[in-house]
């Protein structure tokens, strides 16, 4: 059941975020009067992406995000540092690779 919920969050969060990005890329298709501005606008636009990332974590780990957070908080600071740095490096490489292939 956790994987289904995670997949659901991932798909719908990604679809909504993709629509927001398409409005930014093609402003003439934006259906409303004004773009959300400032930090509040950024937060509003990024909420679907955050939901998609939570869904991805739940889909991969097969645990609710609260259990993943509990497991992470039990690690000591050295392990957190190296795992966090590894996640940032791997995700950066993945993002650059995907962007270079598709753009």
Mean pLDDT across all amino acids: 87
Distance between the termini: 35 Å
Domains counted in the coordinates: how many? 2
Number of helices: 4
**Helix-strand category:** mainly alpha
Q: Element order, helices and strands?
A: HHHH
Low-confidence stretches: none
Q: Could you walk me through the main structural features you see in this protein, from its secondary elements to its overall organization?
A:
The protein is an all-alpha fold. It is built from four helices and no strands. The chain folds into two domains: 62 residues; 29 residues. The protein is globular.
Name some characteristics of this structure:
mainly alpha, 0% strand, 103 residues, 81% helix, 2 domains
In brief:
The protein has helices spanning 2-25, 38-61, 65-73, 77-102. The protein is mainly α.
Topology (elements, then pairings):
Elements: H1 2-25, H2 38-61, H3 65-73, H4 77-102
Helix pairs in contact: 1-2
